[in-house]
Design a protein that fits this description.
With about 130 residues, this protein is α+β, with helices and mostly antiparallel strands. About 30% of the residues lie in helices and about 30% in strands.
């Protein structure tokens, strides 16, 4: 019983820490965020960035198929997105990407024509 209470307390502390950190990440000058279901076909990990390529037909004309996250500015998020995307790709399941719609906010190595900055992602199992 004591171990369960300690685990619950640790989980609550972890959630509180995540909640406290969230507002800092939200203070970017992002454009409107777009949610996109991505069938990941490529995950690239570099010291400075994580890059994802989504396969399939874009749902809207002009929809990007490449997404990049600056690993220097957001190292923890970059690791999490790379792990999430690799897992989803291995299971042949899509991930939901949240990306900044403004090309002006793209990180280095992300062209304006077909790429956008990753703001977040999630993976929902069946």
């Amino acid at each position: 019983m004591i171990i369960i209470r300690a685990l619950l307390a640790a989980a609550a502390a972890g959630l509180a820490a995540l909640s406290a950190a969230a507002p800092a990440a939200a203070q970017n000058n992002n454009g409107p965020e777009v949610f996109f279901k991505c069938n990941v076909s490529l995950v690239e990990v570099f010291p400075s960035k994580v890059s994802l390529v989504c396969n399939g037909v874009a749902p809207k004309p002009g929809q990007p198929n490449q997404f990049v996250l600056d690993a220097v500015k957001f190292p923890t998020l970059a690791t999490q997105v790379a792990t999430l995307a690799s897992t989803a790709m291995a299971h042949r399941m899509p991930i939901n990407l949240i990306y900044d719609s403004l090309a002006a906010n793209n990180p280095p190595g992300c062209g304006a024509g077909n790429c956008r900055k990753i703001d977040g992602a999630n993976f929902q199992g069946q």
